[in-house]
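Hello Y.,

Per our agreement to keep a running log of every chain we model this quarter, I'm adding this entry. I've kept the format consistent with earlier entries: sequence first, then predicted structure.
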Amino acid sequence: MFVLTTASVIPWESTQHNSTISIKTPSLVTCTATVDYRYGNEHGVLHKGQLLFLHPQCSLELIHIPPSAFTLYHIGFQDYALTEESPDKRVYELTTVNLPSHGSKTGASPQVLRMLAIIQDLSEKRTGSVQTEEARSHYLLSELLELFKLAIKPSTEMVDSIIREALRYMNHHYDSHLTREELARLTGFNASYFSRFFQKQVGRSFQAHLTRVRMDKTKQYLLSTHATLNEIALLVGYSDGLYLSRKFKQFTGISPSEYRLQPRARRIATVQYTGDLLALGVYPIAASFLPWAMSPLIQDELHDVLDLDQYGVEEILRTEPPDLIIAPDYLYYLPHKLEQLEQIAPVMVLPWDKLNRMETVQLIGRIIGREQAAENWIDHYTALVSSEAERLGAAIQPDETVGLYELWEDGTICIWNVTARAAYNVYYGLNLTPPPSILRDVLEPNNHQFIQEDQLTEYAANHMFLVLSSHEGGLYHDAQVKLMERPHWNKVMNNGKSRIYPLKLEQFWCNDALALEKQLQLMVDILIRENGEKNR
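Predicted structure for the entry above:
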């Protein structure tokens, strides 16, 4: 449980050279300008918008030369863990177990914008009750610390970017003959150093992790297909089923046939697939409520669902624990998080950013024994798309193109394939026509495309859904005005052929089944509203 102790907004005067902050509780500090800093024997540069984490009982000196006016933010808090519970009382004690290391600092990360918005939110004076404000600050601090742990460099949770690339390569090539030497060569290290670095970052050896990935894939194939053990062995990188059987029993404690015949899970928790479970008629007992794992469009559907990010392992285990946790394979990059989940229940790791939403729903349906429910939802989605397409009517002409884009604050434009950001609704649901460049570079190769603003005209469509961050000060607010100030967007908006429809990132970050339905209706509403008059 997080308790806010300090939320200071400190103006830096235009004649001021330095300032000192006393760190009395765990703290995050950030500035709206770049400053030098010192604490103890450590010194460095805190760039504009970067966040620095410090443990208590130190003095932080900030230096800015030449002097100019800007703002400092200082967020201090305490973390309490539940240590005793009875019908009469709960006892919480101070803890630092889950806090980042002293001096951790964020690098370039998409999480930074949301963190800055949370810091501003925490710094605002509120007039609600003490109880309400404590609950609000707890949830905001929980999100802030989770985002910080993802963004810090070096990170205490997410593996180094080089090891992340190695893990991603293993996720795609586990079915081939992978060796430590090959991965070392691909990452530019000698085999010995790579082995030590991998072990330190991931918490297990290269070979142990490769076995882990193969066993996770074996679990998936056992529950989702009728393939024989020999066939599965070839799919996961082994030469025969007998060898796979021995490895599987060593890893899980039961044989593949016993695993396949065991009762399907009924009490399910999930990190990323909440809307898919709801579409299958399964109400999760616990889920991740982090913004990239749970769409705000579906949160009203959930009641009495435990937050996997708020409650500790012990607290969830005190209730009746889940039979299964469904999680995405990007958690391989967060080994500490994956280990926490495995303390609660068996984890089924599914491929992330590889399947479209229909394929994902079908896969989960087979794994939990709800194949018919999956087909029913696909039929429901197909009927909904047909209804929405009819409602769309003549708002989009047959010869007009439609695209979906996301603009980051640094000017990078992401053009998503059908595994992300409701792009499935545009290209495969409503079956709208993409520009030839998006068809060629994104949809046919099934890859995301990242371009710079000077390439925009090559990928522009007649109708452009544009995902923008909607935090305070984000591009979503006054989007048309802000985009007109950017030369390449100005050119597209004034070419007489393109229209832009801003979408809130927070609503379109996730695209699980139930979110996809709601996003579909939002998108059609926008097209009708913006183009209805044109076609009358």
